[in-house]
Amino acid sequence: MKKIKKVLWAIAILLLLITVGALIFVNSLKPDYSGEKPLPGLQEEVKVFYDTYGIPHIYAGTEVDAVKALGYVHAQDRLWQMELLRRVATGRLSEVFGEDLVKTDKFFLSLGIDEYSAQTVANLNMKSDMVVLSRAYLDGINEFIKKGPTPVEFHLTGLEKEPFILEDIYNAVGYMAFSFAMAHKTDPLLTSLRDKLGEEYMRDLAIDSDTSTVWIKNYRKTSMDSLAVDITKSVTQALDKLPIPQFIGSNSWVIAPEKTKNGKVIFANDPHIGFAQPSVWYEAHVNTPNYEKYGYHMAGIPFPILGHDRNLAYGMTMFENDDIDFYYEEVHPSDSTKYKVANTWLDFEYVNKTIKVKDGEDISFTYKKTHHGPVLNGIADQISQERPVSMSWVYTKPKNEVLDALYGISHAANLDEFKNALPKIHAPGLNIMYGDSEGNVAWWAAAKLYQMPDSLSTKFILDGATGKEEPLHYIDFSENPSAINPPWHYVYSANNQPDSIAGQLYPGYYLPENRAKRIVQLLDAKNDWDKTTASEMILDVTSSVNPSLITELIKMFDVTLLTKEQLVQVDSLKNWDGRYSLNSTVPTLYHRCEYFTVKNTMEDEMGEEMFNKFLATHLFKRQIAWGANMAEGQWWDNVNTKDVVETRRDIVLKSFSDAWISLVEDFGPDPSQWTWDKVHTLEHPHPIGQVESLRKYFNVGPFSVEGSREVINNLAFPYDSTGLYKVNSGPSTRRIVDFSDIENSISILPTGQSGNPFSKHYKDQAEMYAQGKFRKMMMNQEEIESTAESVLIFTKE
Question: Which UniProt keywords apply (predicted)?
């Protein structure tokens, strides 16, 4: 018995030691939010005050010192995120995650972002203010890498930390420029559909702009080839594996003094980005004698992409312009190293790349390039034997000055200085929103736009051999869509179609009018906006389109064929105000009906695989209202029923029946149980959280959330056969800047400020975000210092 007790005591002591050791190890991985740290190269001491939510308020004597400290504190909360972001463009994800990411690495390497970044850095003026500050930021990151604790993800993956260099910043910007990738999902798909079904089917798709929908108004005071399907498939597979989020869309509006209660500008912005943990933005308030900005930073980028100070505020939405074109190339009949352009044969360029694979052999591959860009064949195995298709992307064409633009807009003192920085943004296409303390409101579409030959649709794969389907010239920035102080006293963007550019509607992958229509409806109706009502508007969950769509389709129902329960629900649909609240059953029934209507209309022609790819495009979103309002058309007929020609009414009634049956199967026969909270949920996924045993430690959520696709509170989800609407993108922050009370402007992040799972700020805003709450963006120094949760002091070495 004594021996057993001794063994048990030994085991207990061993377990205690292991537990204590584990706690010490875990504690050593936490960010340091207090104390003193030497930071090499500082000119004088820098103080960092952390507020209740872990947001650093950095006070320094010079901007170089402040940005160096910013690099350190950013890295200690987000180094893992920085590491992943810089690896995308350089094809180095397989080093971390293994062979599953090889296709993704191949695809991004073929885009040429890494080569373009290296070329850009080689031509930089190393003495410019932009470069000096960028290098100071990198110095801060690298000091943390050298002396700070290693994040747990590096331990779990076995990854070694490496210093950051200037090219890493440009590679991160390059990923941002590419990330929404609608051309890859849309153009090859449309080409394949046209080849398979013919032009008549194309006429009934919402490919071009609908003149009856809400457009953003300009204002200037004075002036069947399988290849296409394979490309879409290969790109989708590559992007689906990405461990970091993609940019999707956004809302923003800026209200002029004439429409606000306090006679000052109110600025609102909520960029829509794929949800992930950590979330995209890192907030930091930087203050020096000559510079102040409360900014939102992407991992590894020194200048805030969203920001405000006491004089001005700026933000963005995605422009959604078409900046990628695909070309069929013609290979020389007797020399496969050459391709045709007009009457000339040019040499393919051959690019050799090697991908390092975790727990596997290195993979070497070669791809070809034309003057358009990379040839996609050979990058994806399934299209290696088809005729060549190359990709032309405007991002890698002109001189890269995007970082100069970010420096310029973050250092502008007024509207003119701000505007002068915008022509340096060539890609991604961004709607830049602006408001200031002087009462100015403005919107510019910032992108390098180009003129194509008349009557040429860039929504299909073009002919690269003729030389007649090439860009003619770049359009001057002065002709880009914009509005400065318009007479209707506000500007807005919801990724919808902008008005004409240089006499034409610029092609793009614009979102439907739904959010824009609601924004305009709300802004036009009111002239006494304040911070409270603006914050209510950014949380609005009412659809401006779906109720009218139901009104149109419900006319086709024969009430004598419906059960008592169905009559009650149809009546609820008929009287629905379009609100997506958690306890409502109408949204659940509506979206089931919508899915089955689109499926029963289009899947028979497209086939299952192509239909599922179609569901991932913006074209699908535009098609919903457009298609449902078509009284007649080829799509309504089911091609699999040879002896019957289906009508719109047939499809609508069948879809309602299919939706009803599926809801009964999922939630039972009582419609009162079909509430929106059961199907519309948000979980923030961490790459390590894909391992089921680690999910609860790294992922955040899930939460039941209000909102839906294409309402202002755009908590969007993919459509599939599950009937569950798991939110995958939405507001990456919600910001309201009120120039009548600048120190009490409000914001929220989806999860928390820190990407370190052992930090108390890893998910401390998640429930607030899900519930539609806000917190202050603090700017008053006295308040910041007196309420600081902790202080971190960087000292001269």
Answer: Calcium, Hydrolase, Metal-binding, Zymogen
pLDDT at 531 over 70: yes
Which domain covers residue 7, as residue numbers? 1-30
Element (H, E) at 390: strand 389-393
Residue 728 has a CB neighbour count (10 Å cut-off) of 18
Compute the distance between CA of residue 684 and CA of residue 243 in angstroms, rounded to an integer.
12
534 with 550, same domain? Answer: no
Distance of CA 25 to the CA centre of its chain: 35
Quote the tokens at residue 490. 């506000």
Q: How confident is the model at residue 20 (pLDDT cuts 50, 70, 90)?
A: very low
* 3-state secondary structure labels for all residues of 44-82: CCEEEEECCCCCEEEECCCHHHHHHHHHHHHHHHHHHHH
Q: The tokens of 688 are what?
A: 């390590």
The helix-helix angle for 129-147 and 166-178 (nearest 10°) equals: 100
Cis check for the bond before 278: say yes or no (omega within 30 of 0).
yes
SS3 of residue 119 by DSSP: helix
Residue 621 near residue 633 (C-beta atoms within 8 A): no
Cα distances (angstroms) measured from residue 112 to each of 91, 362, 384, 742: 10, 20, 19, 43
Residue 487 belongs to a domain: yes
Residue 725's pLDDT band (cuts 50, 70, 90): very high
Known catalytic residues?
250
* 719 within 8 A of 593, measured Cβ to Cβ: no
| pLDDT value at residue 686 | 94
H/E segment holding residue 364: strand 363-369
Q: How far is CA 496 from CA 17, 53, 156, 493, 723, in A?
A: 60, 34, 43, 7, 27
Residue 407 placed within a domain: yes
CB 116, CB 50: distance < 8 Å: no
Minimum mean pLDDT range among 4-18, 435-449, 463-477: 4-18
What are the backbone angles phi and psi of residue 109, rounded to the nearest 5°?
-60, -35
Give the span between the Cα atoms of 699 and 685, in whole angstroms.
Answer: 5
CB within 8 A of 687, min separation 6: which ones? 84, 97, 153, 243
Tell whether residue 325 is among the known ligand binding residues.
yes
CA–CA gap between residue 164 and residue 660 (Å, rounded)? 55
Q: Is the dihedral angle over the CA atoms 193, 197, 202, 206 positive or is it negative?
A: negative
Same domain assignment for residues 518 and 626: no
636 & 716 share domain: yes
C-alpha distances in angstroms, 431 versus 319, 373, 575, 711? 5, 26, 36, 19
Q: Give the integer Cα–Cα distance in Å for 649 and 82.
A: 52
Whole-number pLDDT of residue 353: 93
Q: Residue 579 belongs to a domain with what CATH number?
A: 1.10.1400
115 plus 10 within the same structural domain: no
The Cβ of residue 604 has, within 10 Å, a number of other Cβ atoms equal to 17
Backbone angles phi, psi at 252, to 5 degrees: -160, 145
Helix, strand and coil in the chain, % to nearest 5? 40, 20, 40
- Average pLDDT along the chain: 89
Kindly state whether residues 251 and 386 are assigned to the same domain.
yes
Alpha-carbon dihedral sign for residues 170, 172, 175, 179: negative
Exposed / middle / buried, residue 752 (Cβ in 10 Å: 0-12, 13-18, 19+): buried
pLDDT at 357 over 60: yes
- Domain assignment present for 189: no
User: At 21, phi and psi to the nearest 5?
Assistant: -60, -40
pLDDT digit string, tens, across residues 151-169? 999 999 999 999 999 999 9
pLDDT at position 724 over 90 = yes
Asked whether 351 and 114 are in contact (CB, 8 A), the reply is no
Which of 531, 42, 136, 639 lies closest to 313 in space, CA to CA? Answer: 531
Question: Cβ contacts of residue 412 below 8 Å, gap of 6+?
Answer: 312, 418, 420, 421
